[in-house]
């Protein structure tokens, strides 16, 4: 059976719906701050009622306009479509542990695919009221103004950000990559929100971000941001990226990407 082929939709229409939904989801997160209860799914993987409330609102807003599209979301949302090859990839709260602990570094992330191609995305930071957006072929923006990566090419002058697996022990390869990178870069951090890290690469605030433990909803929107801002996006080895596979290296320039891929190999 062949895949559905939908008539093209103006990507700006998709983006407008994504922005509206992301802002609504972010408002719910902020409303829940300080009044949620916490429960454990597994070790250090904290979940709140806010995740579910945010995703419910996001889904309701987008599906009201695009009811025949597919949907994939962090909190149990997996709705395929036989009528459309458009799919929305939603993270209603990227940076859950930060959110739970009151550390203001978390975001709503919404990406849109047509087939396997990312065509629109938004990352919304409700703490700073920053809306990062991208449309394939039209560049990336922050609150309506064009953004680009730093263009940094010197690894020793670069600032890096890494994601580490939940509960990783000192022998984990991701921990070893993190430690190894510290002697080659000006500074290396771990922040807890992949979506914002990718937005920071796109906007020139940091020069690289890498991970081997992310899900597609963590990276869909941010990946497009980086590409449209002139950055380089590969897997951790420097090969072609597949957002369904947990291996990602985003960089300000091909030179930084190649240097890190060689370092990590």
From TrEMBL:
MF-aspect GO terms: inositol monophosphate 1-phosphatase activity; metal ion binding
First-tier enzyme category under EC: hydrolase
EC number: 3.1.3.25
Binding site for Mg(2+) 1: 74, 91, 94, 218
Catalytic reaction annotation: a myo-inositol phosphate + H2O = myo-inositol + phosphate
GO biological processes: inositol metabolic process; phosphatidylinositol phosphate biosynthetic process; signal transduction
Keyword vocabulary terms for this entry: Hydrolase, Magnesium, Metal-binding
Residues annotated as binding Mg(2+) 2: 93
Domain of life: Bacteria
InterPro entries reported in the protein's UniProt record: IMPase, Inositol_monoP_metal-BS, Inositol_monophosphatase-like, Inositol_monophosphatase_CS
Cofactor: Mg(2+)
Family per record: Belongs to the inositol monophosphatase superfamily.
Protein name in UniProt: Inositol-1-monophosphatase
Gene (name only): suhB_2
């Amino acid at each position: 059976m062949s895949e559905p082929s939908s008539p093209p939709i103006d990507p700006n229409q998709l983006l407008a719906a994504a922005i509206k939904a992301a802002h609504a989801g972010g408002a719910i997160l902020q409303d829940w701050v300080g009044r949620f209860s916490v429960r454990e799914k597994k070790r250090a993987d904290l979940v709140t009622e806010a995740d579910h409330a945010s995703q419910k609102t996001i889904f309701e807003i987008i599906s009201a306009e695009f009811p025949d599209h597919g949907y994939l979301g962090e909190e149990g949302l997996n709705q395929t479509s036989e009528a459309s090859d458009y799919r929305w990839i939603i993270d209603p709260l990227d940076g859950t542990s930060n959110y739970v602990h009151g550390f203001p570094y978390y975001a709503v992330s919404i990406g849109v695919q047509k087939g396997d191609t990312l065509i629109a995305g938004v990352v919304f930071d409700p703490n700073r009221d920053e809306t990062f957006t991208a449309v394939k072929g039209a560049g990336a923006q922050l609150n309506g103004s064009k953004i680009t990566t730093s263009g940094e090419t010197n690894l020793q002058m670069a600032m890096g950000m890494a994601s580490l697996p939940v509960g990783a022990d000192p022998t984990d390869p991701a921990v070893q990559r993190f430690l190894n990178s510290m002697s080659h870069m000006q500074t290396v951090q771990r922040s807890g929100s992949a979506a914002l890290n990718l937005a920071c690469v796109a906007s020139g605030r940091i020069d690289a971000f890498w991970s081997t433990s992310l899900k597609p909803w963590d990276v869909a929107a941010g990946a497009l941001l980086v590409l449209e801002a002139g950055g380089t996006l590969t897997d951790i080895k420097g090969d072609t990226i597949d957002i369904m596979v947990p291996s990602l290296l985003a960089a300000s320039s091909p030179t930084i990407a190649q240097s890190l891929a060689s370092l990590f190999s």
